[in-house]
Design brief:
It is a single chain. The protein is 9% helix and 44% strand. It has helices spanning 2-18, 313-331; strands at residues 24-25, 32-35, 39-42, 52-59, 62-68, 71-74, 82-85, 90-94, 102-110, 116-125, 129-134, 140-141, 147-154, 159-164, 167-168, 175-177, 183-186, 195-203, 206-214, 216-226, 230-232, 237-246, 250-255, 258-259, 266-269, 278-286, 291-302, 343-345, 351-353, 368-369, 372-373. The chain has 389 residues and is mainly beta. Residues 365-389 are annotated as: Disordered. Residues 129-213, 220-294 form the Ig-like domain.
Amino acid sequence: NSARNGLLYDFCSVKMLFCLFLSEDLQFSGPANGAVGGSVVFAPDNPPSTSINIVQWQFGSTLILIAQSDSTTIVPEYSDRVSFDINTLALELWNLRLNDSGIYRLTVVPSAGGQLTGETSLQVFEIITNVRLISPEESLIEGESSANISSEGTGSITSVQWMKDNSPLSPSNSIIFSSDNRSVSISPVQRSDSGEYQCTYRNPISSETATLSLIINYGPEEVSIKGEDVVDLGARVSLSCSANSKPAASFSWKINGTDTDVTTDTFIIDYTDFTHSGEYICTAWNSVTKRNATQKHALLVKGGGGGGGGLSSGAIAGIVIGVLVAVAGICGLTDLNYADISHFQKASGERVNLGNKSEFSTEYADVKHGGKSRAPPPPYGSQVSSCIH
């Protein structure tokens, strides 16, 4: 203690002796930042080039150490936390605490006389950890829901930054930040609000980012049906229904107002008949928004290339022969010969062939008139008697 007191007395005497000399400031690179439990080094950028009599480091008004060329005295409070380099005048302080933040002053008395002083500052921060985002628990529906995203973390937080999909998130009529910038409210949500949100806590010595994916549910809307409008009898038909929806919509189908068991986006008919003509309705359903939307599609199944509106030539022949029988009865004919019926002409002018002369397998039904059975029909070439009035 006596040596320390003597050193302090010498320093004060020297300081008083040279206080009238113009002092030259010692320069430091800038404020220092440190983490709790870490270390920091203070060193002037322009230490004096001449020999030094006395060096003093202070924290505010508290003395840390006094050094001469051949000895260094560190006060007990800092004895296990600092080291000093007499050549560079650097002071290293470790095991930092939050209350180490403040102003540090260096005073140098060179052998040539005068006094040099310089100041620097230290800010000690707790390292940021455990940053996370807290999102709404309920499903968010476009135009109906509000979303509040809050953040939390530990450490010394000097700034909070929000991003969405790697771009800065800015306030708007629907996006409002809290006064401390640690939460954001979106009301009402829109589908464009879907995406990844990032919140970064920062201080000069650390940072940490938390992310959160926000999903906005919407739809269904813009329902459409793609597929054939007109098909031939027996053709295969595939109708495809789509909708803009989040999550993806489920589908159901009706034909002419009647429910079907089809619950996929595609309605397939492997072989069409005339009963498949009509109105097809696709309904899209969103199980989260509880909304649905429909679209209609008309399908026409038309006849193939055969004549007679779908009747076979044999059926048509039977009809013609029946007509002939009726005519024979009206005319009072007792005898009716089979005609060489090769075709008849429809009102539209279309010719319908009845049998094939080259095919001897063509058969005709027996025609009975007046209760008498007639012989089998004659070969082609016979003529039918005309009823002339």
